[in-house]
Amino acid sequence: MTDDQIREKIRNGAPFFAVNSRHEMMARYMPFMPVFRWEKNQMVPTPLQGEDLIWWMKSRDEIEDTDPLGD
């Protein structure tokens, strides 16, 4: 799935299982339930949900685009 497809699934509450462009595994197992991501050998709920999660993903991508060294 592309990042845009993942964002659309987050917005409309649909279940999904995908790997984003940063190679992070993300999933929503049931409609309108929390989005989970892979962390330390387990799926944990993301701290943000819905539009807040989409905003966080977009801002994180923009920061990485402007700072290629990760400083």
Instruction: Kindly estimate the percentage of residues that lie in beta strands according to DSSP.
Output: 15-25%
Number of domains: 1
**Radius of gyration, whole Å:** 12 Å
Give the count of helical stretches.
2
Structural class: alpha+beta
| Biggest sheet details | 4 strands, antiparallel
With strands numbered from the N-terminus, the spatial order across the biggest sheet is: 1-2-3-4
Detail the poorly predicted runs: none
Short recap of the structure:
The chain has 71 residues and is α+β, with helices and mostly antiparallel strands. The chain is 38% helix and 23% strand. The chain has a four-stranded antiparallel sheet with strand order 1-2-3-4, with helices on one face.
Structure characterization notes:
The longest helix is centred in the C-terminal third of the chain and has 17 residues, at 50-66. The protein has a four-stranded antiparallel β-sheet with strand order 1-2-3-4, covered by helices on one side. It has two helices and four strands; from the N terminus they run αββββα. By secondary structure, it is an alpha+beta fold. It has one domain (3-66). Helix content is 38%, strand content 23%.
